[in-house]
Amino acid sequence: MLRISDLMRCLFLFSLPLWILIFPVVFFSSGIFPTLIKNLSEFRVPLGVSTGILYLANSAGCVGGSLLTGFLAIPLLGWYPTLIVFSALAFLIGAAGIFLWPSSDKDANVSGFRFELTRGSLLTISSLMAVAVVLFYFSDHRIKYKLATGEYSQAKIISYKEGISGVAAATAERNPDGLSITIYSNGQNMSALPDLPRHAYLANIPRIQNRLEMVLVLGLGGGRNLTDLLEDQRIQKLIAVDWSREVIKLLSTEPVTQYNGNPFRDKRLRVVMADAKKAVKQYAQQGARFDAIVENLCFPHWPGAGGLISVQYFESIKSILDPNGYYYHIDNARKEQDRERILFTLSQVFEHVVVHNRRLIICGAHAYSPLEPHVSRVLDRRLLERAPGFFVPESTLPDQIFSAFFRLIEPVRLDQFQDQRVLTDEIPATEYYITFPSIWGKVLRGLKLRKRPSQG
After folding, report:
1. Which domain holds residue 13?
2. Out of 207-216, 332-341, 366-375, 379-388, which region has the weakest mean confidence (pLDDT)?
3. pTM for the predicted model, two decimal places
4. pLDDT tens for residues 90-110?
5. Domain identity same for 357 and 255
6. Does the residue 300 lie in any domain?
């Protein structure tokens, strides 16, 4: 149930500073065009010419302002300092225009009126800016958390990055098992540190295969997956691809490196900031070959995910996979229908597709058949405790680990699918489409301001 106090807190801490900074600009902008056209008409400028001049100036300002804001101001200053600076500039330019604009009216009182109006406007603007800055200062934590995580919480932000691809944050909370670090990017929960069982599982399964020298990881997660992979001394080069510059900065700097093992200091690691689909195509053009490709990019229902589960994308993956290598695709599908579509599409591309523990899809040119020495070497007691129930059932005895692991491997057969269509770039059948009811539901959930009880 939404409480009035929560609604007022939201309005005061988040909406009011934005209203103070933005509303005057938007409100007075509505009078700019008629005012300027009237002033130009006083100098006998034809209506068509004055309108054209003003629209040209407005268009140039929109283009230049967008480029300046997106590529310089926000990366250098951050989003809300940019908002404050540009709002102040808009007010100052408007005030200067009132004072400096020449007039055909020879009445001396006009000059005095303009001076007083400008001085009063500047005083009012200065007061509003001071109030807005104070409100932003007190609401700094909540605004940052809302931007990076998509929700409000009392969790402490231990690291925060802004830039051209969005925002990323690491938050810390106490729980019965100790300190939990959560990594967010643009409102999405990306991973947890120091351990996320699903990511520990995904990172260590490839270490079981026979040959492992060149590895491609698509999606950084929290960075601990890279640390796990680099523990395997057979790896000569590991390339990690992520599109978010801010996530890369966040994971490679203190204090997050205290919790992910700081894999970025390993010289075998190369981090590439790029869209995964474009990166895979580029490596295909270069003729690169990888022994293992590990992917954990997104959920199938996310907007834009269709291009990462299409037959065209999987064919690009196959083209850079060594003939004796394997492609590891985490099973993130929420619906069984989506899962079957993905499995069917993968089966159209790869000769052999298996599913391990209904969690991980493993594809390759050869049947997946790990050797017992490799399984025993990787799946030690420490790793099984980090991801209970993922590699083998929790009740598995030490001398039964290999057989238990092997029993969880299920081959995928084409005859098990009926009336399925291949997923393509043109038909992203698993994506979530935004509707008006879903937007309204988002608004209502955002107003509830769910709080997490803080623990000492």
Report:
1. 4-136
2. 332-341
3. 0.72
4. 777 766 766 666 555 544 555
5. yes
6. yes
